[in-house]
Amino acid sequence: LWHYSFYHYWRSEGCPHSQHLPLMGDGPIPVIIIMSAYLLFVTRLGPWIMSRRPALELRGPMLTYNTVMVAINAYFFFKFISLSQYGRVFANFQFPSKYDNSERTHALILTTYLYSVSKFIDLLDTVFFVLRKRNRQVTGLHLYHHTIVPLLAWMTMKIMPTVPAFHIFGILNSLVHTIMYSYYALK
């Protein structure tokens, strides 16, 4: 049961177009390890390390990070809009075939993959909170969001990276993150 749940199911049901991509070849164990390490660091290890040190001043790195994240999220917002044919695909209620080999499908899979990877990069904002000793900003909702979104993005990418419902989420999430990171960059 363990082998099936954490390896065989994902291998047999996964999208054949994404098997070769990093983190996509097998089951969720590498992603679970990454997310567990993240949670361990931001809730226990990081605050413990920083308890003996002064808060770090990270204006330069944070400005760079926020500016890069604005560009990344704006890119995904416009790319998902374009690949969804400006919303027309959302009116088609057919479930896409994971064996579709069209150019649009490959572009959508690559965009979905890069978007999924960007959700792991988003974890750095919590690391910045910890290093700056802004632990009150590390709320349950923040941790829930930053844990669940990368896991769901990975699962979607693994099983059905072309499903329109995920791309609606990507459009909305990218728009919100573009605004949010713009605010943080200007702050």
Automatic annotation (TrEMBL):
Per the record, membrane topology reads: Multi-pass membrane protein
State its location(s): Membrane
The reply to whether Nucleotide-binding figures as a keyword in the UniProt entry is: no
What keywords are annotated for this sequence in UniProt? Fatty acid biosynthesis, Fatty acid metabolism, Lipid biosynthesis, Lipid metabolism, Membrane, Transferase, Transmembrane, Transmembrane helix
The source's superkingdom equals: Eukaryota
For this UniProt entry, which segments traverse the membrane? 29-50, 62-87, 107-131, 166-186
Task: Please name the top-level EC class of this enzyme.
Answer: transferase
Query: Is Transmembrane helix one of the keywords?
Result: yes
- Mention any one GO cellular component term assigned to this protein in its UniProt record: endoplasmic reticulum membrane
Which EC numbers does the record give? Answer: 2.3.1.199
Listed under GO biological process in this entry are:
fatty acid elongation, monounsaturated fatty acid; fatty acid elongation, polyunsaturated fatty acid; fatty acid elongation, saturated fatty acid; sphingolipid biosynthetic process; very long-chain fatty acid biosynthetic process
Recorded hits in PANTHER family, A to Z, give: ELONGATION OF VERY LONG CHAIN FATTY ACIDS PROTEIN (PTHR11157:SF126), FATTY ACID ACYL TRANSFERASE-RELATED (PTHR11157)
Similarity-based family: Belongs to the ELO family.
Protein name, as recorded? Elongation of very long chain fatty acids protein
